[in-house]
Amino acid sequence: MKANKQTGFTLVELLIAVAIVGILLSVAYPSYRDSVERGERAVAKAALSSLGGAMERYYAENNTYVGATLTKVAHPANVPLDGGKVTYQLSIVSSSLSASGYMLNATPKGTNTIIYSLSSTGEKKSGKVANNLQSGWDD
Fold first, then answer.
1. Which of 5, 16, 37, 67 is most exposed, with the fewest beta carbons within 10 Å of its own?
2. Terminal CA-to-CA distance of the chain, rounded, Å?
């Protein structure tokens, strides 16, 4: 009689493989999340610039920014603009509206923490606290 020779992996080999995969994931996942968040921020900046263009069209038609709303300028409030998981919310700061100026904000709705702002003069600001934004859109 022949002895049955079993083939396959032992429990120890499987545990080692699972441990290696776990270590690789613990290193790769934070880098992946950082890349996703940078992409979301880039889309938010582009959407804010798009809203700025819509505000300029509103001004060309009305000769003032007063009364501008997202509905009146025909611009979506959610980022990304084409639908999907909402990562930023666009808004027109109503207290900043005047005949010759405006302020726009992109506020994070997900894991991102950076707020972006754009004024009618093209001034770009960003930061983690709305009332303490720094000049520029550097991340």
1. 5
2. 72
For the stretch 21-68, pLDDT in tens is 999 999 999 999 999 999 999 999 999 999 999 999 999 999 999 999
Supply the CATH number for residue 102's domain.
3.30.540
Q: What is the pLDDT of residues 68-98, one digit of tens each?
A: 999 999 999 999 988 889 999 999 998 889 9
Question: Is 5 within the bounds of a domain?
Answer: no
**Residue carrying the six token digits 């069209």:** 57
In angstroms, the CA 32 to CA 27 distance is 9
**Residue tagged 């904000």 (tokens):** 105
Number of domains present in the structure of the chain:
1
* Predicted local confidence at residue 1, as pLDDT: 58
- The DSSP 8-state label assigned to residue 71 in this structure reads T
Range of the domain at 97: 12-135
